[in-house]
Amino acid sequence: MEALDQELDEAELEMPTEPMLLNVGPAHPAMHGTVRCVMELSGEIIEHVDVQVGYLHRGFEKMCERGTWTQVFPYVDRCNYVSPMLNNVGFALACEKMLGVTVPERCQWYRMILGELARMSDHLTCDGAMAMELGAFTPFLWMIKAREMIWDLMEEETGARLTHSFGRVGGMASPPTENLKENARAVTKHILSVIEEVEKLLLGNRIFLDRLEGVGIITQADAISLGWTGPCLRATGVPYDVRKASPYLKYDEVEFEVPVGSASDCFDRFMVRLAEMRQSAHIIEQCCQRMADSGPVNVTDPRIILPPKEEVYSTIEGTIQHFKIVMEGLKLPAGEVYSYSEGGNGELGFYLVSDGSGTPYRVRIRPPCFLITAGLERVITGAMMADVVPSFGSLNMIGGECDR
Amino acid sequence: MSKALIDLVKKQFGAAVLESHSLFGDDTLVVEASAWRDVSGFLRDDPACQMDMLTDLTAVDYPEREPRFEIVAHFYSLSKGHRLRLKTRTGDEEGDDAEVDSLCEFWASANWMEREIFDMFGVTFKNHPDLRRILLYPEFEGHPLRKDYPADKIQPLIAYRDVPNIEKIAPFSVDEGMSFGRQTHTQPRHDTDDSSVN
Fold first, then answer.
1. A332: which of A116, A161, A354, A373 fits an S-S bond (Cβ 3.0–4.6 Å)?
2. pLDDT value at residue A273
3. What pLDDT shows up at residue B188?
């Protein structure tokens, strides 16, 4: 019998290699259930990648062309289902820009409080999921618990945890509850303490840092060219935030900073989101101080806002008003408008075309996620297979918004 | 503010600019389809414009117009802080021959957004590196955001199971959700006799 440990000729060991094709997703937990990546691997290095989206396409824009402008609100809720309030407000702002109306001050503060809370819930989800995908389950549970508090508050305010459909053109569906400020302060206080604990748990963790630092780098020029906005763009060092660049609501009257990163890797994107939550808490505190406890929330134009129910049932004017708005829909002047606000992932734009009837002619949502996901190819080409998980997690792809 | 921008482009491409307006505070330029690429490149490279970001690119279908499609781009300049909407028109009555130049060479964001327009409207982009459907599946027939695509049409990838005594209904009926304000979607609809899609 020959010896098994005999010296082999090195050349004989060289086996012919060919690139391996690997499918990740759409039903893969790291792809958040809605994206498919076809990768060509050489060893563990990704040579080429084809990112395929669309598994959650529901024909959002086609559906919008079939109802009234007000009936679009439930649909925008389901675009970014982690921070639906920002979408609600964004769409309401677009319609109001067309109508040329401004909601009362109290409503603007109210929208800001709810919007910033929604932004926090967005960032909590993203950072929590990122940590979980890298094996740190505890921060994920803490952050999701904190997010649950935000959703409890939202339920108190709007009646629904997740898909609120709470925005209205010219105001909100109902005025703030009495306990809003108290609840908002309690929630933000809790979230700030969660952030601190999470930082203590993660930022000294060698494994966590090694998997994020220097991973998923994109150049600033690439990010701009790809149309990235929001935390992902700010992580590359560009201080572009719609709230600062072209303030809407009352953002020009509150103090806050725009946190930016420098290395534009996954770690920076993680840290920018944490820093933004602190800024959001700061904004919420200022809004609570300045929001009046009483006063009108909706505009008074009867062509825009539904009359109170008592009037509908007791006066003819109220009945007609109600009928006109419900059956014909409120009428936006003919024309087109592009309105933008800062969503959880960046510039959330609405391009609306109206033909003057009560039905939208075209509703185009500019989804920040879609363009960010378009950049995934550049981020992970040339990286290791294992880097896909933190890179994809840090981009915070929201299926509903990406695929609409 | 970007009124000056409109004048600048008009001076540079006088003949190609079809119209311009500033509605609801948004400055808009409409150019010939043949000048689409040149004007976009100018907007990016000219020191007075510096549109380094193509924020949005989409299309609108006006079936009664000729050319039928409007391609709408929204530019933003990070350094100058100004915005501009640029539009062009293309495509005949049937929606064929709708073609404009791709902007992928200027902005990487154009890649996916042009694929989406191709997917939803059937507008093709010249010199696009990878023009295929993005949100829908390759087997899908037609372009759903065209106004003549019936909203209640269904194209399941796998035919529904044939279960006796159970009627499959489309997610929308023809006029469901339509307000009284407009009834323009009542074009002659495709026959849905096709047994695979009933």
1. A354
2. 92
3. 44
The count of CB pairs under 8 A between chains A and B is 128
- Pairing assessment for the beta strands B124-126 and B99-101 based on DSSP bridges: parallel
- Give the amino acid at A81: Y
The Cα of A301 is separated from the nearest Cα of chain B by a number of Å equal to: 19
Number of domain units in chain A: 1
Q: How many other CB atoms are found less than 10 A from the CB of residue A355?
A: 17
Q: Does A27 map to a domain? A: no
Determine whether the interchain pair B180/A327 forms a contact, defined as Cβ–Cβ distance below 8 Å. yes
State residue B182's pLDDT score: 55
Backbone dihedral angles phi then psi of residue A84, each to the nearest 5 degrees: -65, -30
Domain positions in chain B are: 3-126, 150-198
Whether residue A48 lies inside any domain: the answer is: no
DSSP conformation class of B14: G
CB count in 10 Å sphere of residue A220: 15
Per-residue pLDDT, B187: 47
Residue A62 contacts residue B145 (beta carbons within 8 Å): yes
pLDDT of residue B198 exceeding 50: no
CATH of the domain at A356: 1.10.645.10
Q: What pLDDT score does A123 carry?
A: 92
Element at A21 (helix H, strand E): strand A20-24
Class of the CATH domain delimited by B3-126: alpha beta
Q: How many other β-carbons are positioned within 10 Å of the β-carbon of residue B146?
A: 18
Q: Above 50 in pLDDT, residue A263?
A: yes
Sequence-ordered alpha helix ranges (H) in A68-135: 73-77, 84-99, 105-133
List of chain A residues whose C-beta atoms are within 8 Å of the C-beta of residue B133: 54
Residue A154, H or E segment: helix A137-158
Q: Which residues of B touch A361 (CB under 8 A)?
A: 60
- pLDDT of B48 > 60? The answer is yes
Q: Which residues form the domain of A121?
A: 61-403
Q: Would you say residue A354 lies in a domain?
A: yes
Residue A228 lies in a domain: yes
The DSSP secondary structure of A300-338, one letter per residue, reads --TTTSPPPHHHHHH-HHHHHHHHIIIII-PPPPSEEEE
Q: Do residues A390 and A130 make contact, with C-beta atoms less than 8 angstroms apart?
A: yes
- Shortest distance, CA A362 to any CA of chain B (angstroms): 7
- The percentage of chain B sitting over the pLDDT mark of 70, rounded to a whole number, equals 82
Statement: residue B137 has pLDDT above 80: yes
